[in-house]
Design a protein that fits this description.
Number of strands: 19
Number of helices: 11
Number of domains: 1
Structural class: alpha/beta
Oligomer: single chain
Strand order of the largest sheet: 5-4-3-6-7-8-12-17-16-18
CATH class: Alpha Beta
CATH architecture: 3-Layer(aba) Sandwich
Strand content: 15-25%
Largest sheet: 10 strands, mixed
Order of helices and strands: EEEHEHEHEHHEHEEHEEHEEHEEEEHEEH
CATH superfamily: NAD(P)-binding Rossmann-like Domain
Length: 368
Amino acid sequence: MAGSAGASPGAHGSPLRDFAGTACDLTGRSIFLTGGTGSFGHQFLDIVTRRFKPRQLTVFSRDELKQYETAQRFSPETFPFLRFMIGDVRDGARLAEAMRGADIVIHAAAMKHVPIAEANPFECVQTNIHGAEHVVRAAIAHGVERVVALSSDKAAAPVNLYGATKLASDKIVLAANGMTGAGGPRFSVVRYGNVVGSRGSVAPFFQRLVSEGARDLPITDPRMTRFWITLEQGVNFVLSVLSDMQGGEVFVPKLPSMRTIDLARAIAPALPHRIVGARPGEKLHEVMITPDDSRCTLDAGDRYVVIAQGRDAVRRAWEEAGAEAVRDGWSYASDNNPEQLDIPGLQTLLGLTRAAPRPVAVQAVKAV
């Protein structure tokens, strides 16, 4: 039930949402998670093992060390429904073999580092584009019920290779809804911003520099803004999407934005800044919904829903549930976002706490 997530104040008095209102019940289900040993995967495992009892949860990834370390933290002896499988989404045959019997697929595997993708374009295409194709083909072949693919704000109006490959991945996943017959798998996409605390993100990078005694913090551009989301928010949002998805939607959570220079001030108020310039392929501001996509976008309370063209029944279902069209030509960007995160808000975000549920803005969406 979109719009019912708990919230706490933080972005100029606007709510920091936890998106925990309408999680899909995973008890008794078989879940297949690609990229399962990354930051999202660890948080997903933590939440699912605490809240549900799946029939099976397969953690699929290519790094045997990360698989070993994850299995030490989430032991199959303690959680007998866990299954760890080595494999790469580039390998369609292995992926199809591992996905057999899954009810729900969450596709989190991706090559994400912008400069590395720029320097290694063929590798990025293999993982992000062909990997998505393999996930779609395997899900259709095995009659999976629902597939949610994780995307990025960089997929909207991309200026770097990573964003371009994620846009192609999104298109592949959404188009898959037209490849299945009645009762076939449903495919949707989740798109969100920078993840606070994930491996490689700027917040732990700044914190590491401070702990190592840095004399200043490097800033690419003092004007640069980004959307921010925590790992827990991200997992909660995916679980809510699994509950509400009809197939053919891109789900975008309403998130606060913040200048990266203010993030540095929040983490180390006393340290000066050193301007180093933007990296190759780096935007000044991120966009999650472009003006051209506004015609396909509905406001559904705590999120926006971008509905693929031709999915008229899905749009009607969301509108009947209370979602409303946004203004034509509107865009959702980190610099024009009305929810700008201040320093106290960032501190709240880093230690997000539950609050009383907000009033429901959109009712449960009827299946189409």
